[in-house]
Write a structure and sequence with these properties.
heterodimer; A: alpha/beta; Rossmann fold; 6-stranded mixed β-sheet; 4-stranded antiparallel β-sheet; 11 helices; B: mainly alpha; MetI-like fold; 3 domains; 5% strand
């Protein structure tokens, strides 16, 4: 990835309200190589369901190769925002957007943008594990096959690589031909991650990936996110604030459709600028 | 609530009051259980009632129809005089005459012309054809005496099966006393017996009950269903998939949807009228053929298939779609590789329901000439044919007593056809489900 030295040093991130503030990288984590450029940037980006404005005029840059968490109470628009990035909201007929959302300098909602290609680059894992009712191998190989990989050996390589990345290889390597629905919930979720990784995306969108899992499986997913940090731009929507503070470098806080605060995670959790953020993270409402 | 009141109540009789609430709950509980019991009873009663009706229907059909699977045959010694057989074309000889001779030889005492006619009427007119087939099959029998089991007339058949009583006055039965004597002679000589009725399963329709069979109608139904299935399954599923997955939701598609739902409730004879007007009159397609019948039934079946298929598509969990979209499938890829295979069992069920409906349909076929009396067994899609329900209707309309049991037997065959169709669907559904 090409980028200027200036961008590497100070990451200018558009903060809510349009006022550009400088956010410095979290000091306690090492800086990610080649990371930190705006990968997805929203400008006055709003999402509507019919007349209802679910996300209101968001201005934000999501930095490449870092983990950004999105938190907020139910119905605040965090999932909607996440799903807007790979145009998953297109499946909802009444949903439309205003403003611009750029991905790698390309307008996501532009007239000539191909959403199929976009979704290949922006992978997604949903709240409930949703493996295809097929074998484990076919689950992972589905994406590459879709994009034209036919060679059996290459597919096998991709499957192994993806499963290793998702830390699932050792558990399933002997039963790749079994139905994926026979796996446990946590394994299924990691399978979904592996399936997404198999098409080699640039961005990974995780929509509450652990809310249907037990603590042990959750820990595994969190380890996985830590593992993937630095290789992919990761956006994770979560209800669990401890999780956000554990896994993310940056955190966005949404409240009633507004992006209230967007800051390095440490800063947001220790020294929130906004009163609503403070009330939320201290548990005054949820 | 008043705070002081509540405190006073709790202080004076806290425990007794709690017991009382439990009593109330218990009393209501009993009532609730009674209600549930009553509800179960109603459910059981309705099921028992429907099972009884079904059992009644089946027993009446089977008890009426099982005897049609047997047919009375009479053993006849036929002297095949070489002079009587046409040398050039043995098929054109006077076999009727040979049969009559053979009958006369067994009853030498019958001389009177009227009596002889009455005697001959005990034998089916099909006997001559049987003899002809026998000679054509094996020309070496010419010149010998052939011992042949020929079909008895339907009246004799009915007598043997007990549907014509021997002890009623002569003018109240279809066979007179002399005929009964002749039959008694056959019985004494062990020349009359009941055999399995192969004619019923191999012949087409006939005016003579003993020569009538269901095979023509079975084949007609088979060809008609084939046309219906071949047209309605792909069209129905394509329409359902397009409407459910691809079509924009606007006024036009809403209008189409309402119309499809309404079409499912249109009286079937209307489809027959449409078939008459469009396929026969406008396109000039052949009358009474499985091709036109199949197309008309396809029109009738389509709404059922489309509605059922759309329901099956709707039932596919959205998570599967999202997962497939999430890895970059195009819309068509999502549909063909995930949605369609998951919805297929439901679609098959809908198709089978539609086909079963079409199989039993007569009204739309009346209009396109499929109620005609058709003796020939159809050999293809453009041969005139009858279908099973029409055949049942035609036989039910015939006055001969022997057609009563044939009607019931044909209903049994129709039911067997239906059950085997359903069984096939279940097997197919199971197979598709297992693949997933």
């Amino acid at each position: 990835m090409q980028m200027t030295a200036e961008e590497k040093d100070t990451n200018k991130v558009a903060a809510p309200g349009g006022a550009s503030r400088e956010i410095f990288l979290p000091p306690e984590r090492e800086r990610v190589k080649d990371g930190g450029r705006p990968h997805v940037s929203a400008k006055n980006f709003s999402i509507f369901y019919g007349d209802f404005e679910a996300v209101k005029k968001v201005n934000a840059d999501i930095l490449s190769k870092y983990v950004t968490a999105i938190i907020g109470p139910s119905g605040c628009g965090k999932s909607t925002f996440l799903r807007a990035i790979n145009r998953m909201n297109d499946l909802i007929p009444s949903c439309y957007t205003t403003g611009t959302l750029m991905f790698d300098g390309e307008d996501v909602y532009g007239r000539y943008t191909d959403e199929v290609q976009l979704r290949k680059k922006i992978g997604m894992v949903l709240q409930k594990p949703n493996p295809f009712p097929k074998s484990i191998f076919d689950n992972i190989a589905y994406g590459p096959r879709l994009h034209g990989v036919k060679d059996k050996k290459m597919l096998e390589e991709v499957v192994e690589k993806s499963l290793r990345k998702a830390a699932l290889w050792d558990e399933v390597k002997d039963r790749l031909d079994r139905n994926a629905l026979g796996l446990s919930g946590g394994q299924q979720q990691r399978l979904c991650v592996a399936r997404t990784l198999a098409v080699e995306p640039e961005i990974l969108l995780l929509d509450e990936p652990t809310s249907a899992l037990d603590p042990k499986a959750t820990a595994k997913i969190e380890d996985l996110i830590e593992e993937l940090r630095g290789s992919y731009t990761i956006l994770i929507v979560t209800h669990n604030m401890q999780q956000a503070s554990r896994v993310s470098d940056y955190t966005m806080f949404y409240y009633e459709g507004d992006l209230v605060e967007y800051a390095p995670t440490k800063q947001l959790f220790t020294n929130p600028r906004d009163q609503v953020t403070e009330d939320y993270i201290t548990g005054r409402f949820s | 609530m008043n705070k002081s009141n509540k405190q006073a109540g709790a202080g004076s009789s806290g425990t007794s009051r709690r017991e009382r609430t439990i009593d109330i709950v218990n009393k209501r509980l009993e009532k609730r259980y009674r209600k549930e019991k009553r509800f179960r009873l109603y459910g059981m009663l309705s099921i028992i009632a429907s099972v009884l009706f079904l059992a009644f229907l089946l027993t009446s059909i089977v008890s009426n129809g099982y005897s049609a699977f047997w047919q009375t045959y009479i053993k006849l010694d036929v002297q095949l005089d070489p002079d009587m057989i046409d040398k050039e074309d043995p098929g054109r000889s006077n076999y009727q005459g040979i049969i009559k001779q053979a009958i006369g030889a067994y009853y030498p005492e019958v001389k009177d012309r009227k009596e002889r006619r009455e005697l001959y009427s005990l034998f089916s007119s099909g006997a001559a054809f049987q003899l002809r087939d026998e000679v054509l099959k094996n020309p070496a029998v010419v010149g010998t005496t052939l011992s042949l089991w020929v079909l008895a007339d339907d009246d004799v058949d009915m007598l043997m099966k007990g549907h014509i009583k021997r002890n009623v006055p002569e003018n109240e039965r279809r066979l007179n006393d002399k005929q009964l004597q002749w039959i008694a002679k056959l019985e004494a000589g062990k020349r009359i017996e009941e055999r399995f009725n192969t004619t019923f399963f191999t012949a087409g329709d006939s005016r003579e009950p003993e020569l009538a069979g269901i095979w023509g109608a079975v084949k007609g139904s088979f060809y008609t269903m084939l046309v219906t299935l071949a047209l309605s399954f792909p069209i129905g599923i394509a329409a359902a998939v397009y409407l459910e997955e691809f079509a924009p939701k606007n006024l036009a598609t809403d209008f189409i949807e309402v119309n499809i739902n309404n079409l499912a409730a249109v009286p079937s004879i209307v489809f027959g009228l449409l078939g008459l007007a469009v396929f026969l009159n406008f396109f000039g397609m052949p009358r009474s053929t499985p091709l036109v019948g199949g197309i008309v039934l396809m029109l009738m079946t389509l709404p059922t298939i489309i509605i059922a298929s759309r329901a099956a598509l709707k039932a596919v969990p959205p998570s599967i779609r999202e997962a497939a979209f999430g890895v970059g499938s195009s819309k068509l890829q999502v549909v063909t590789s995930h949605v369609l295979p998951l919805a297929l069992p439901g679609m098959l069920t809908g198709t089978i329901i539609g086909m079963a409906q079409a199989l039993g349909e007569t009204a739309p076929l009346l209009m396109i000439g499929m109620v005609a009396f058709i003796v020939d067994i159809p050999g293809g899609f453009t041969d005139p044919a009858a279908v099973m329900p029409v055949q049942i209707y035609l036989w039910a309309d015939s006055p001969e007593r022997a057609f009563v049991e044939r009607t019931s037997a044909a209903i049994m065959v129709l039911l067997a056809f239906l059950i085997s169709m359903n069984a096939l669907a279940v097997v197919m559904r199971k197979r598709f489900e297992r693949r997933w």
